Amino acid sequence: MSKLFLMAVVFIGLLVSSTEVQGQNATSKSKNQKTEKVAIEKLILAYQDALNASDASKVINLYTPTGVLMANAAPTAEGAEQVKGTYQYVFDNFTYALQFTILEIEVNGNTAFARSTSKGSFVIKASGQTVPDENRELFVFQKVNGQWKIARYMYNKNK
User: Fold this and answer.
1) What is the dihedral of CA 79, 59, 92, 89, to 10 degrees?
2) Distance of CA 21 to the CA centre of its chain
3) How far lies 47's CA from each of 23, 50, 113, 117, 134, in Å?
4) Which domains does the chain have, with CATH numbers?
5) Angle value at C-alpha 26, between 24 and 36, nearest 5 degrees
6) What residues pair up with 17 in beta bridges, in sequence order?
7) pLDDT tens per residue, range 55-87
8) Per-residue DSSP letters for 78-95?
9) CA angle 50, 94, 97 (to 5 degrees)
10) Separation CA 141–CA 108 (nearest Å)
11) What residues contact residue 145 under an 8 Å CB cut-off, 6+ apart?
């Protein structure tokens, strides 16, 4: 009987120890998820700032080298050169003042996605006309050399 009791105590000890390790792993994963989401939020806000500054070089530094831009009512831009060219064309013709609101961020290993909305206005440089602007966005991110980058970005008008 004492052997049976000893085995039960050892088994319960192992079970409790395993549960504690699993709990610690879950806590560690949760903290890591939060850290990754904060990094992605900062990336989206850096994108917002670069867009509002009309700085194509800053924008392209936020993308992966193979990034894809699917802009509203425009051809798809694939790769750094096309993406930068699209932004440069936009910045040559328009000035933006947009505020992004992040709705959702999901992280899965070295990939993630986020949904957001943006609201504000843009100025048509040729006429000086200010136009209200409101969009919804979908970002797909990839972690490159330890940093989150935009791998795919698509937006369209809310209305």
Assistant:
1) 20
2) 31
3) 36, 5, 15, 13, 16
4) 2-157 (3.10.450.50)
5) 115
6) none
7) 999 999 999 999 999 999 899 999 999 999 999
8) EHHHHHHHHHHHHHHHEE
9) 50
10) 10
11) none
Structure tokens at 78: 């694939």
Question: Which tokens sit at 105?
Answer: 């961020």
pLDDT at 2: 60
Residues 149 and 44: their CA atoms lie apart, in Å, by: 10
Strand order in the sheet with 147-157: 77-78, 63-70, 147-157, 129-144, 111-124, 94-108
Interior CA angle at 158 toward 156 and 159, to 5°? 115
Q: How many Å separate Cα 106 from the centre of its chain?
A: 9
Q: How crowded is residue 36: how many other Cβ atoms within 10 Å of its Cβ?
A: 19
